[in-house]
Design goal:
Strand content of chain A: under 5%
Distance between the termini of chain B: 16 Å
Radius of gyration of chain B: 16 Å
Number of helices of chain B: 6
Distance between the termini of chain A: 32 Å
Helix content of chain A: over 70%
Structural class of chain B: alpha/beta
Oligomer: heterodimer
Strand order of the largest sheet of chain B: 6-7-8-3-9-10
CATH class of chain B: Alpha Beta
Order of helices and strands of chain B: EEEHEEHEHHHEHEEE
Largest sheet of chain B: 6 strands, mixed
CATH topology of chain B: Rossmann fold
Radius of gyration of chain A: 22 Å
Number of strands of chain A: 0
CATH superfamily of chain B: P-loop containing nucleotide triphosphate hydrolases
Chain lengths: 286, 197
């Protein structure tokens, strides 16, 4: 009975089955690291919902802002899926040092620079900007501006996650499918991805979660949106920064707590889908 | 008719393949002898360092995998997200439904359901049937025949189906127990092929 209880607690992630873990420095440091990660969140949630409970922090503007953040990050996750799945597959199945390095660029440069880069890319003073304007695309203070910035900054996490998923599979099925006369693109989208729905959803939600946390590039590129139905609405991170500067920490803390609850829900959904993914069990068996 | 004369090096391992044969061909040899490397090179997954691969007078050495019509079938060779009917309909084929039904019947495919949820033996039957329906020039069966129940009956049916359509079959196995079911037999050792039959 007692051993069963320990097993339940272990599988629930509450304690390790072996009580000697309390003497294990790696285990203790792991717990200390986890506490460091969770403590600011818990304090923020407590002060946001219990201590301050600012009505301005729970206003319609905050909900509009969170809705804009959810929509733009979900669209960017869809764009990332369409554009970067082939790249992730290519990196998983062949050696491409150049492509590997390029894939890491968004993660290695300060994000305000990403905002400035897209600002220049879409500027009417550059040939690229004039071309984009000629087909009706403007990045400045627009929903598409937010989407392109979020796509750029969240691409690496999606690419690396899917690269890991693809790498953990045996490639005999790929060879078989291609040798039946199938093109690689049909094989990828028609044969491989349908058998990796949970893993792909996990990678997409993780990418979306990363997009929801973005501030630097959006603050430069689209401080607020000038398009219907979000005229005058800022992304949540920008709005909270604004509230902190103009309305004080009380409002910012409450709005932040609300945003964190939404972000954790997306992350939890991603974990739920990723938990039973075959790539995880295969990795753990290796 | 397959005529393959090529060399392939992977790290310290060297494969020197020379084969000119047709029909049902057995490759037997222990783990690490080079059977899978040979089959995957024929399929185009691995490129040759030197030499040529000719199947039915067509030089496929530099062809991409999807154009060779050389179908590789290993233990994980199936499209698991599809149902059996969708699986056999996956490749382009000029075969009519009667002919497809005959192939399924001869290969003992009287079951349905999602391929990923079938037993290994059933998945292999479906994969081989799909390969025949794809109008392949050659089937490359890598150590999976032993997983099929009633293997003798299955192999006889495979022989009948492939002979009628001019498809060559190379089956790799660790032992030569089933040699009597094949037209030709080669042993593979340390990357070299030698004819037994």
């Amino acid at each position: 009975m007692e051993s069963y209880l320990w097993q339940v607690l272990y599988e629930g992630g509450i304690v390790m089955a072996n009580r000697n873990r309390l003497k294990d420095a790696v285990w203790i440091l792991s717990i200390a690291g986890a506490i460091l990660l969770i403590m600011p969140i818990l304090v923020l949630l407590y002060y946001g919902f219990v201590v301050y409970r600012s009505s301005a922090g729970l206003s319609i503007q905050v909900f509009e802002s969170i809705l804009l953040t959810l929509i733009t990050s979900a669209i960017s996750a869809a764009v990332v899926f369409l554009l970067f799945t082939p790249l992730a597959y290519e990196l998983a199945t062949s050696r491409h040092l150049g492509l590997e390095s390029i894939s890491d660029i968004p993660a290695s440069i300060p994000h305000p620079i990403v905002g400035i880069a897209f600002l220049i890319l879409g500027s009417p003073f550059t040939p690229t900007g004039r071309f984009l304007a000629s087909i009706g695309i403007s990045f400045f203070d627009s929903i598409q501006g937010i989407v392109i910035a979020l796509t750029f900054v969240s691409a690496p996490i999606y690419i690396r996650t899917m690269q890991s998923v693809f790498s953990s599979r045996k490639q005999d099925a790929d060879l078989y499918t291609m040798s039946l006369g199938t093109s690689r693109i049909k094989m990828l989208y028609g044969a491989i991805l349908p058998s990796l729905k949970r893993e792909t959803l996990y990678a997409g939600l993780t990418s979306m979660s990363r997009g929801m946390s973005e501030f630097g590039s959006i603050a430069i590129l689209a401080y607020y949106v000038t398009q219907y139905p979000f005229v005058g609405v800022s992304n949540a991170s920008v709005l909270i920064y604004n509230y902190y500067g103009y309305l004080g920490p009380g409002v910012a803390v409450t709005a932040s707590a609300l945003m964190i609850v939404i972000s954790i829900a997306v992350l939890a959904a991603a974990r739920l889908f990723g938990r039973s993914g075959n790539w995880r069990s295969q990795s753990s068996n290796d | 008719m397959i005529e393959a004369n090529f060399h392939k090096r992977i790290g310290e391992f060297r494969l020197n393949a020379s084969i000119s044969s047709e029909g049902m061909i057995l490759l037997s040899g222990p783990n690490g002898s080079g059977k899978t490397t040979f089959l995957k090179t024929i399929a185009g997954y691995l490129s040759v360092d030197s030499g040529n691969i000719v199947v039915n007078s067509v030089n496929i050495t530099d062809m991409p995998v999807s154009a060779r019509k050389a179908v590789y079938i290993g233990a994980d060779s199936s499209i698991n997200s599809l149902g059996v009917k969708d699986h056999i309909s996956w490749p382009k084929s000029s075969m009519g439904s009667d002919e497809k039904d005959k192939i399924l019947s001869l290969l003992g495919i009287d079951f349905d359901g999602k391929v990923g949820e079938l037993s290994l033996g059933q998945r292999i039957r479906v994969s081989i049937a799909t390969a025949i329906i794809s109008e392949a020039r050659i089937l490359l069966i890598d150590e999976v025949l032993a997983n099929i129940s009633k293997v003798q009956e299955f192999t006889m049916a495979l022989r009948e189906l492939t002979a009628k359509r001019g498809i060559d079959v190379i089956a790799a196995m660790q032992t030569d127990d089933l040699e009597y079911l094949f037209d030709h037999s080669f042993s593979v050792n340390h990357g070299s092929l030698s004819r037994l039959k």
